[in-house]
């Protein structure tokens, strides 16, 4: 926006009323120019300068600049791990031997001690295993009372634990709707299943996972976590889906509020480090127990640049400082730079420069940029928690990635209709995300949980054993 030039001095012989009118027009023009700049800024938010997802970017948004070519060929690079099909124990072996030499056509005989193996994997026709309970009614010869043999408690739903677990996986992990799951049961398994029965199986599966999800929630409160929230709908009312992500366990909750009470339900007064964005509900956290997401800050810095006002240069300086920060952090994450060295030499230098830039931003003349700079100066200790606390990342990308599956599910299912539906969603998401991080089979886990619930046995747990190591490493900037 081109600034309004300073008006020339008015002649002394003008009437006071005319001078006052001109000054009023000048003030009006200044206010209108500021309002136009504000409205233009509202039209320009995209995924690079705000929290909007990339899928919402209009066509005119310029894509990210292409990366410089590395000079290497496409595909797998020398030294990368081989990805080969796993050989399974064969159910049938067919021996193939050449009968004649391919060169001279002489007969061949004998065996190859190490023959080449070529396996063909086929899926069998799935036929449901049906157990029929015939409950006899017998009349007492003495008193005439008729007694019916009861159906065992583990058989009252009419579906076995594995069938119930498959229905939960199809709806929760594969994001199929009730009718889609019903059709798949008929087409793939040869077993008709009504959409209403899919809902019933979901509710019983949620009950089976209640102790599992509660234990996972308690575990996450005792560890540093990435925390995030996203919109949800329950019974046509606005709700929010909350997530806490640790290295090996993830916990989800659905609440009707986005306020402090929902955060307390999720974290329960945890004394661990919380990696978050700058949503105001997190401001009560002590600064030394909070890490502000630098991926969100980068978008704020880009927004400063895109405003094209006196604060644009400051945004470029802050963005350059974050580039330097992540350049050092990549080395820490890859093991080529010690964390102590990063904290002592590199981070302190970057921190001093970022602090100086934020101080200049308070006086830059752009109200929005100045407000962001004042907020970051007040939160400055929370910008560098990852430098001194092992296991803490500078971004909240882990939570962003875990919540993405739920966002895609919400867009196709439009949320849930009841409290029971919300309990199913939060518990199935907890199981899926935690099992994926631990490298465990979701279907096997759910089958064991349903079986334990029906028989009264001890349910399986998502709590990792002490010797278990993280199977997932989250890149610093990917996926946000």
Automatic annotation (TrEMBL):
Residues 81-90 have a biased composition (Basic and acidic residues). Residues 173-422 form the Transposase IS66 central domain. InterPro entries: DUF6444, Transposase-related, Transposase_IS66_central. Residues 42-90 are annotated as: Disordered. Residues 55-68 have a biased composition (Pro residues). Residues 44-54 have a biased composition (Low complexity). Pfam families: DDE_Tnp_IS66, DUF6444. Residues 22-85 form the DUF6444 domain. PANTHER family: BLL1576 PROTEIN (PTHR33678), PTHR33678:SF2. This is IS66 family transposase ISGob1. It comes from Gemmata obscuriglobus.
């Amino acid at each position: 926006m081109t600034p309004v030039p300073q008006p020339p001095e008015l002649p002394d012989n003008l009437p006071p009323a005319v001078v006052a009118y001109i000054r009023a027009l000048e003030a009006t023009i200044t206010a209108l120019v500021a309002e136009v700049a504000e409205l233009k800024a509202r039209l320009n938010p995209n995924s690079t300068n705000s929290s909007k997802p990339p899928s919402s970017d209009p066509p005119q948004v310029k894509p990210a600049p292409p990366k410089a070519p590395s000079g290497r060929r496409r595909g797998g690079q020398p030294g990368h791990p081989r990805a080969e099909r796993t050989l399974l124990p064969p159910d049938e072996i067919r021996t193939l031997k050449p009968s004649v030499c391919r060169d001279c056509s002489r007969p061949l005989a004998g065996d190859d001690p190490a023959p080449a193996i070529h396996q063909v994997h086929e899926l069998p026709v799935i036929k449901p295993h049906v157990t029929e309970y015939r409950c006899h009614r017998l009349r007492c010869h003495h008193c005439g009372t008729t007694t019916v043999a009861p159906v065992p408690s583990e058989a009252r739903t009419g579906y076995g634990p594995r069938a119930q677990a498959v229905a939960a996986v199809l709806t929760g992990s594969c994001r199929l709707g009730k009718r889609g799951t019903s059709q798949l049961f008929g087409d793939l398994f040869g077993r008709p299943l009504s959409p209403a029965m899919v809902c019933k199986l979901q509710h019983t599966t949620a009950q089976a996972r209640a102790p599992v999800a509660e234990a996972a929630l308690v575990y996450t409160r005792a560890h540093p976590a990435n925390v995030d929230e996203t919109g949800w709908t329950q019974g046509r009312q606005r709700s929010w889906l909350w997530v806490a992500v640790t290295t090996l366990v993830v916990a989800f909750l659905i609440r009707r509020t986005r306020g402090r009470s929902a955060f307390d339900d999720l974290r329960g007064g945890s004394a661990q480090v919380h990696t978050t964005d700058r949503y105001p509900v997190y401001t009560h956290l002590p600064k030394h127990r909070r890490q502000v997401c630098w991926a969100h800050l980068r978008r704020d810095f880009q927004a400063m640049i895109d405003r094209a006002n006196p604060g644009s240069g400051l945004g470029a300086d802050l963005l350059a400082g974050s580039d330097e920060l992540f350049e050092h952090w990549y080395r820490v994450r890859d093991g080529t730079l010690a964390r102590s060295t990063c904290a002592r030499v590199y981070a302190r230098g970057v921190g001093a420069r970022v602090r100086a830039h934020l101080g200049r931003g308070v006086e830059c003349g752009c109200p929005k940029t100045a407000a962001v700079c004042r907020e970051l100066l007040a939160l400055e200790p929370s910008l560098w928690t990852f430098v001194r606390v092992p296991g803490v990342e500078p971004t909240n990308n882990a939570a962003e990635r875990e919540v993405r599956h739920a966002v895609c599910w919400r867009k196709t299912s439009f949320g849930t209709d009841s409290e029971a539906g919300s309990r199913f969603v939060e518990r199935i998401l907890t199981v899926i995300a935690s099992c994926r991080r631990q490298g465990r089979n979701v279907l096997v886990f759910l089958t064991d949980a349903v079986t334990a619930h029906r028989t009264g046995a001890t349910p399986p747990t998502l709590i990792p054993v002490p010797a278990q190591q993280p199977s997932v490493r989250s890149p610093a900037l990917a996926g946000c």
